[in-house]
Amino acid sequence: MSVLQIGAGGVGGVVAHKLAMNAKTFGEITLASRTLSKCQEIAKSVLEKTGVQIQCKSVDADSVDELVALINEIKPKVVINVALPYQDLSIMEACLRTKTHYLDTANYEHPDTAKFEYKEQWAFDKAYKEAGIFALLGSGFDPGVTNVFCAYAQKHYFDEIHSIDILDCNAGDHGYPFATNFNPEINLREVSSKGRYWQEGKWIETEPMEIMQVWDYPEIGEKDSYLLYHEELESLVKNIKGLKRIRFFMTFSQNYLNHMRCLENVGMLRIDEVEHNGSKIIPIQFLKTLLPDPASLAGRTIGKTNIGCYITGLKDGKEKTIYIYNVCDHQECYKEVNSQAISYTTGVPAMIGAKLIVEGKWGGEGVFNMEELDPDPFMEELNTQGLPWKVLEF
Ligand code: NDP
């Protein structure tokens, strides 16, 4: 038995530690990324914390040929993609060519367009079916656990779900004037884009940060939360029958928003090439170089996250509302795996998805989103692997 993880950033660090903590299930663990030294740093921490030795490799995940060679060498049961969304298609293609199961945490984004959608990944469905392999898309927290929460609510709490509000609150404080909790380029592209939600069969577009609502988060309190478009909306609209409205909200402080608006106004969020002193640079990539590495926020971030789904609908003819959520503490994550909670809440579900695939509890032929699988084994694993959840019934 062996498993191949690609990507050694903030999320990658958590996945590697969690794979090692479940080494009996995964067998030989190989961590590959573009920069070998980052894999080696993670491997050192994994060895210190768990006593498990993981293998390190360098790979350019934009090259299908390099990936195929690596997969053929390792022969993993599943490839866990926690590199960047830009690499999704090349890694899916390499898995197809080698007939290997695939898992990721974020849907494909083209580097030149700040837009994400499942179209290109869903297009692999027929080929994956023919090859008899399984692709699990979006096995992070949101997307990921939020999709599983919806499937669990559908299975155990409702006959019909009418509305879903996915709420993502990070009440952590890292002490820097400005930093992002995961890859700055991906994060800033997402939050500076137009908002979008789905109601009565139609997508409704909003200006960035146009809709603000105050939500009261258990164990945290009231926070300004802004409507964003988020990728799980696309698959949940397709897979939760009877849905009338679905929205996604994320908390931001005024300080974060002021910095972001200023960076946008001066052109630092541009994703096209500009001439600078005779060479070409992409402003948002240069900004990434200047900002703190998200992995370095671990250790200095205090506070908690609360991410969950506020769901309304009908049960036995009566109206019902629940909030199903997880609370995660930044400092606890640091103690366990040297990470902050955003990377932790993404990395743990990636490991759980892979574990269910390896154990044969989740599988199939083709390309799947999380809510299409039985939520129960995943929900059980969340409770034992560090992300316990609660349900409030109103
Ligand atoms: P980081 O930028 O910290 O790490 C990305 C890693 O991918 C780095 O190790 C980087 O290597 C590697 N990488 C980039 N390009 C290549 C390439 N061509 N070949 C090989 N390796 C490459 O990102 P995060 O860890 O913060 O995020 C990882 C993923 O998790 C992203 O896709 C992000 O969107 C997703 N995510 C999902 C969430 C969810 O809840 N579903 C929440 C948060 C993040 P190098 O160091 O050499 O650049």
UniProtKB/TrEMBL annotation:
Residues 3-136 form the Saccharopine dehydrogenase NADP binding domain. Residues 140-387 form the Saccharopine dehydrogenase-like C-terminal domain. Pfam families: Sacchrp_dh_C, Sacchrp_dh_NADP. Gene3D superfamilies: Dihydrodipicolinate Reductase, domain 2, NAD(P)-binding Rossmann-like Domain. SUPFAM superfamilies: NAD(P)-binding Rossmann-fold domains. InterPro entries: NAD(P)-bd_dom_sf (IPR036291), Sacchrp_dh-like_C (IPR032095), Sacchrp_dh_NADP-bd (IPR005097). This is Saccharopine dehydrogenase.
